Here is the input.
Amino acid sequence: MEKKFQIFISSTYEDLKDERNEIIKAVLEMGHIPVGMEMFSAADEEQWKVIARTIDSIDYYAIVVAHRYGSVTSEEISYTEKEFNYAAAKGVPILGFVIDNAAPWPSTKNESDSKKRKRLTEFKTKVKARLVQFWTNKDDLRGKFSVALMKSIINTPRIGWVRADEVAGPLVTKELTRLSSENAVLRDQIDAAKKIAAESENSVGRSMRVLAKNEVRFQLREVVDWKEAKVYALSLADIFSYVAPNLINENSSLGVAQDLALKVLRGPTYYKNWPIGKNQTSEIIADFATLDLVEPSKKKHQVSDTTTYWSLTKLGKTLLQEFRKVKLEEGLAELPEQSDTTNG
Here is the structure.
């Protein structure tokens, strides 16, 4: 079985980009797996847990030091030194590479902060307490890294990584296949659920806009004579919010008319037998049905009961929830007016 080893490459960032890239290329050419600090946000302490978990799983740790100390944590220690300390504490084989003091180096890549320069000197001393290589340029670094890694693999063998099909027997392979298939099914189910949720959200928003844009004029009577009826105009959104609560289970067309009258008059002073005309009520219900907010009730009634009953659809219940939520958030929720009639 051909093992692949995972190597964590640690260094300061801006000043050692080219040198780090050379090491990454060397790791890849040798058939192993490089893990660079490019994966992490060096200035974000929240990433430290991710970095620590990564170091826990690596086989070898390479540290490259030049003339900068780098970004520091809230503990006033550089992230590079913190990584080095953690790898050392975990017993990970460390490959150290410190720049030769005689090597030419741009002054713009030197540490300018006096406090950091002192910490850098102390850090270099800590790294050099182990077996290290001194490098002069990126090509020299690459060559010395390749040799050092090969020696470490021979002298300090690690667990490494192998392809699953090279170590798995038939039963393991079968189980992996099953889990992969199961995972694919679950992903499809999650995608389908997300799609349904998105479509539902779009439908609710669309229904709200349509209800709010359409105004309905209707007559409402408090006495038997329609000549005494008054004309009211409300948006379909207001009407739906008034009559929908009693449609959660079911309500008759007459009950819908009575609920609307109760809300408009703010009390049961309406004429009990169709306070709003039957045709006008049917038109309102038809609009709700067109928007898929109500449907004929599925509850069973006596054969002798010829009344038409309605109930909210799934979309209608979701829309009612949104209306109620808005009222609750705005502190506008209210108890229903007392009525001496029994709807439906």
